[in-house]
Amino acid sequence: MPRKIASLLFGFALSLVATATLAHHGWSSYDASQTLVIEAPLKQVQYRSPHVEAKIDYQGREWNVVLAPVSRLEARGLPEADLSKGKVVKLVGYPRKDGTPEIRAERITLDGRTVELR
Fold first, then answer.
1. CA distances from 90 to 41, 62, 98 (A)
2. How far apart are CA 75 and CA 70, in angstroms?
3. Separation CA 1–CA 19 (nearest Å)
4. What is the DSSP letter of 85?
5. Interatomic CA distance for residues 109 and 83, integer angstroms
6. What is the pLDDT of residues 65-77, one digit of tens each?
7. Are strands 102-110 and 61-66 parallel, antiparallel or unpaired?
8. The dihedral of CA 63, 85, 21, 77: what is its sign?
9. Is residue 7 predicted with pLDDT exceeding 60?
10. Residue 52 contacts residue 45 (beta carbons within 8 Å)
11. Contacting residues for 68 by C-beta, under 8 A, at least 6 apart
């Protein structure tokens, strides 16, 4: 009986992880037909999982910038120290469809180098 309960709990835990993963990667809320190119200084950076995020000012509003996961940024040569407050970056990405001031960045250019994020 304990083995059956453990199996059921394990299956339930797996289904929760799968649901959370699918919900998190809902890129359909971004408009891939409208590419934005923004050059701005970083106001704030949160170098954490599941995705690194930053804040910038654009068009008179504060925008949230969704970058890649920490592991991908580090693997592509973009450690936390390179994304400091005040650093001017060029972002290429897609805005949210609902008008929320947020961009899903596909690439970032800083210090003369471009890093692909997807």
1. 9, 16, 23
2. 9
3. 27
4. T
5. 11
6. 999 999 999 999 9
7. parallel
8. positive
9. no
10. yes
11. 51, 52, 76, 105, 117, 118
